Inverse folding.
């Protein structure tokens, strides 16, 4: 093979590599800073640690309808608007999951939950209205007057935080 052909091949390969680096730098920051869903699926990155630390959670997820549908851990655990974010081993996830996370796929169920006595009223039974924004109180009071805009229930307080479901805090 003549020297000229080898030289041209090396120049073209070098140009392609430089071009790839330049294109990569133009990608949005959110693509560069977060592992892709394909990466998570392919490597099982979440399950890698959680299998050692909370194996029952991984086992339960693997048997779930979400896993069958190809939903990843990050699909549910990514922060929604207004949720506090936290760094978790190279990922940015929501500090606390709420019904707001479920709403992205389950909008009908979310609307039913927001209107139910299991959402905001159940939380307010233990904490009173301290954990709610004025907007959340107004929405909850629309469906169940006096159920959220009130002091905590003394009996529910005795049961403590383990008796509560954090499901409505993002409503």
């Amino acid at each position: 093979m003549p020297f000229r052909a080898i030289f041209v091949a090396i120049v073209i390969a070098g140009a392609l590599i430089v071009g790839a680096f330049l294109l990569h730098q133009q990608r949005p920051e959110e693509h560069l800073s977060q592992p892709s869903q394909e990466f998570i699926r392919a490597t099982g990155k979440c399950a890698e640690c959680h299998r050692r630390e909370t194996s029952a959670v991984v086992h339960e997820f693997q048997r779930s309808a979400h896993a069958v549908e190809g939903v990843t851990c990050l699909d549910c655990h990514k922060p929604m608007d207004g949720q506090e974010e936290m760094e978790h081993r190279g990922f940015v996830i929501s500090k606390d999951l709420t019904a707001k996370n479920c709403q992205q796929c389950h909008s009908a169920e979310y609307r039913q939950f927001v209107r139910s006595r299991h959402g905001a009223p159940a939380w307010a039974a233990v904490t009173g209205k301290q954990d709610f924004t004025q907007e959340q109180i107004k929405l909850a009071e629309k469906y169940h007057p006096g159920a959220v805009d009130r002091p905590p229930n003394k009996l529910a307080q005795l049961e403590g935080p383990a008796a509560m479901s954090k499901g409505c805090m993002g409503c």
Q: What stands out?
A: The CA atoms of residues 8 and 46 lie 44 Å apart. The first strand starts at residue 85 and ends at 88.
